């Protein structure tokens, strides 16, 4: 084929190769844009000043003379932007707990990459290439993310990576420190890692790399930071309970101490290990006991008073409420709890006041046995991100009970949401 | 008229514009990226950016060029973000062969497909803008944000590599039927 023939036939061949036709995602896409607002026209200088006309009418001979000016202007803009970024990054950190502005949603994709999604635009980016990454956790100040590398599903992690939110590596914790790892927690400031290892928890200082071992009860299944106080909550499994769950001893270790944790309480029939509220004033858990009145009930323990209260109906006598409440999650300010609610009239996610009260039902119903949904509150506390396990669809649901929307991406099981300065 | 209505916030008008362009956008993105999912992502990002930023479009007559510019930017973004895990897959026809020309056309298409696949995506973008979307080279250069000389050089080298591929790989009937 000659040069002329190739160039003459290329448009036709490219059309044959690509077979243009209206793609099947067009309606979804237009549905998405219909829900978005346009940027106001007055914010575009081009609408008021004929920028393109001015630039296109400049004589070509004049353009080279403009280049040094343009380069200088770009350099000046870069310097100003850098200074603004530096100043902004120094001052505008979100509070370590409580309500904050919504940032990026961080999760892992099917290929095991660490990805971010901007929920406002649905634009996704790969933050750190996998494979085999899982379980991201973002620090309370929104600046760092910790993530495990687990090459074999259910196997031991081979590394725990701590990254800046731009994807640059802060520190990689090697496999020998992670043997038997049951859980990990990044500190609210992102400067320390807490490793829950049954043989003995460890704290890694991410600045120096120093590792501190903690002497504690055997069989530690979870270690959590108690808010920004630096204190640590340790949970040790004592025994399995019938029909499911465990008896757990719960301890508090003071900031800076490596031993001498104080036992706070023993909890029975705990299905999941306790979750500390973001402000560090309480922890919650849910139970599944032998009697129906103790099945699928949410409890909140208050550190200051040592009081453990069931915030869902748990009658000592009389008719038993058959509704079950499972897998609770704290809101950023600790005022609400999102939970799976299983009831005779149907199963739905519910938003419960942390002090107890009337639940608000949100999102679509899901069948019993489908596993409910993986839930995460938005940092501003106005909505929850829920990925339904029955169909792997992700919804953004207002906690008010107003209609939510399905998002065109899957947040999945292991997801966290970056907090930004309000 | 449609562009002006869409620019004023009329989503129905915008939907009509998108329906008229989306097949070509999707095809162009698939040609540039050689990956259906990445291409779909790029088109979606393009349409979202278009809707959000349409009020800033000063000249409604330039809507198509503007949309193509957004598409190329989205494709380049997609390439950047996938650089750590490059994806290069064969472009498969959706409904089988679209033409029933004689055999040499099929061979030409396959050889050029393979040659295109080997090109750097940024070079492919110049080929697609110029030969598929019908842009002049100065417009393609402006859309890609590169100097005209660079666009010319990329196009020239892309065509050269395609010709080389045809010369190296083409089976005998093509070589006999289409002397270089």
Entry summary:
With 422 residues, chain A is mainly beta. Helix content of chain A is 14%, strand content 39%. Chain A has a four-stranded antiparallel β-sheet with strand order 3-2-1-28, with no helix packed on it. In chain A, strands 4-5-6-7 form a four-stranded antiparallel β-sheet, with no helix packed on it. Chain A has a four-stranded antiparallel β-sheet with strand order 8-9-10-11, with no helix packed on it.
Please characterize this protein's 3D structure.
The complex is a heterodimer of chains A (422) and B (180). With 422 residues, chain A is mainly beta. Chain A is built from four helices and 28 strands. In chain A, a hairpin with a 5-residue loop joins strand 9 and strand 10. Chain A is globular, with a radius of gyration of 26 Å. Chain A starts with a helix and ends with a strand. Chain B is mainly α and 180 residues long. Helices cover 72% and strands 0% of the residues of chain B. The longest helix of chain B has 23 residues, at 11-33. At the A-B interface, helix 1, helix 2 and strand 3 of A face helix 2, helix 3, helix 5, helix 6 and helix 8 of B.
Keywords:
heterodimer; A: 422 residues; mainly beta; 4-stranded antiparallel sheet; 39% strand; B: 180 residues; mainly alpha; 9 helices; elongated; disordered C terminus
